[in-house]
Amino acid sequence: MKKQEQWSSKIGFILAAAGSAIGLGAIWKFPYMAGTNGGGVFFLLFILFTILIGAPILLAEFFIGRRTQKDAISSFQALAPKTAWPIVGTVGVIAAFIILSFYSVVGGWVLSYMWRTAAGVISQDMNFDALFGEIISNPVEVLIAQALFMIMTIMVVQGGVQKGIERASTFMMPALFILFIALVIRSLTLPGAMEGVRFLLSPDWAYLNGQTALTALGQAFFALSIGVSVMVTYASYLDKKEDMTRSAFSVAGLNIVISLLAGLVIFPAVFALGYEPGQGPGLVFVVLPAVFGQMPFGSLFFFVFLVLLLFATLTSAFSILEIVVAAVTKQDAGKRKKAAWLTGLAIFIVGIPSALSFGVLSHITILNRSIFDFADFMTSSIAMPLGALFIALFTGFKMKKADVQEEVLRGSSMSMALFNTWYVLVKFVAPAAILFILLQSVGLFN
Questions:
Q1: Structural domains for the chain
Q2: Residues near 363 by Cβ (< 8 Å), separated by ≥ 6?
């Protein structure tokens, strides 16, 4: 009989789940999305949508996983046998496989910057735009860095739930918070930093429009990594006695806090040193090195930022690889090590075209997108919204409300009034909002 793994504690589960959600979405994507969408208004909408849309779907994934104690595909098979619903889990596993194939490329970029910073190669007078282009177009460097990132991910996941993922997350997440606090203090002590704080926290209502709302909704949705059944898999290792409702809102809350800290590191520094906040995706890899380069001990602080970015990227990668390994092994701990290395190798191979899409394969486009951007679009803009939509519909319409109520309230202090509110959100409000995101992402409202 196979051995079922479990988290050793509730805090271990929360930190691992938070690590899964808190990745490039919070630290890389949130600052540039806020910077290009008015700052304060975007952040306010992001908080509202995280609480009203993201957290309810997150709890729905928790419900499915803990109810069955099985992997993503087997969970739907157990709850809805002889139906098409297991396709939701299957698509989630495939999407996770593809996501990690290009996510590991970005993880490799972080390692490249860390090596250059530690070696003293990065200097204040560099052209950071040209440096970024040089790194991502160098085929040897990007593949070596991608491979190193995947090896780091595999080494942790092969160790199992408690000794691998939980142990690493329990170290990395507190360290991430400590590093963030140090950087926030440094950023806020710069002359003129308060202008950046006002930009992030004081809403400019001129930016309050449908497009900003849709963008904030999408950021709240994608920042929590919902839709590919990652949290179904993580919750399957959760003890039945644990309060998973509190865990879901703890994860959502931590995601908001990390996004706030990322903004408080970046925007005060950007404004204090005369840069524009609306720099787009290059804010972290192009603008931030230049910003830190103008500070005393700037290289040290930039290296610290890269370390926390690596931690956040890795904790997300752990969860993405875990959903694939769990599905392949059917959560049989005895098969974990071999499966982690084989699936990790397969993911690396599939990610090679994405890694080379800014260099030797830059001439290849799919639907006017690079290979990297196409993989990102198909998973982030198509598979994840569809997955979350069907998870909400499955919970709200396929499952009996009494069964959902029993599982969600098991070990929970949630009141019936709060449960009914959550149930309405996940059954009606969240599907409608996700449908809007999906339609907007494919250009219907453009």
A1: 10-441 (1.20.1740.10)
A2: none
